[in-house]
Each structure stands twice: as structure tokens, then as C-alpha cells.
Amino acid sequence: MTEYIIIVALIAIGVFSMFGKTVRNQAAGLAMELSGKKADTQVKNAQTASKDASSRANQPKGMGKYNQGNDSE
């Protein structure tokens, strides 16, 4: 059972590494909208980050270079 928990944690870390920038931009846009300001820039940044993450996810990788290229910047 412990092995499954470790595997799930590693997958979660990988997903957050790929989509973390998208989530941050969406949260920033939500905060801007709640404060009554336009969040067009934050929404556009989130869309760009999600497209970048999607293209990085489609690249074949081995275990030796699994996290290479997944950093948001």
C-alpha cells in the first residue's frame, strides 16, 4: 500500500510541475475578477501556459530525462 501512495505522490508532483504555471495564472485571474478588475492578461497567460504544458507533455521522454523541459520557466 505504501508503494501506491509513493507512486501517486510522484505523479502529482509531475503534474504540478507541468501545469503549475497555468494554475497560478488562473488563480491570479480569479483574484483580479473578484476585486472588480479585468483579468484579460491573466486569462491569456493561463491559456499560453496550458498550451506550453500540453506540448511538453506530448514529447517522448525516458526515465533519465523525465523532468527535463517540464519547468515552467
Structure commentary:
The chain has one domain (1-58). Helix 1 runs antiparallel to helix 2 (40-57). It has helices at residues 2-34, 40-57. The relative contact order is 0.15. It is elongated and about 45 Å long. The longest helix has 33 residues, at 2-34. The protein is built from two helices and no strands. The chain is mainly alpha-helical and 73 residues long. This is Pilus assembly protein. The chain crosses the membrane at residues 6-23. Residues 41-73 are annotated as: Disordered. Residues 42-58 have a biased composition (Polar residues).
Supply the key terms:
Pilus assembly protein, transmembrane, 70% helix, mainly alpha, membrane, elongated, single chain
How are the SSEs ordered, and which strands pair?
Blueprint: H1 2-34, H2 40-57
Region (Disordered): 41-73
Protein name: Pilus assembly protein
Transmembrane segments: 6-23
Summarize this, please?
The protein has two helices and no strands. With 73 residues, the protein is mainly α.
- The total domain count is 1
Beta fraction? under 5%
Overall body shape: elongated
Question: What's the helical proportion of residues?
Answer: 55-70%
Structural class: mainly alpha
Largest sheet: none
The total beta strand count reads 0
The number of helical segments is 2
Order of helices and strands: HH
Oligomeric category: single chain
Low-confidence stretches: none
* Integer-rounded radius of gyration: 15 Å
- Distance between the ends: 35 Å
Average pLDDT for all residues: 78
Region (Disordered): 41-73
Biased composition (Polar residues): 42-58
Transmembrane segments: 6-23
Protein name: Pilus assembly protein
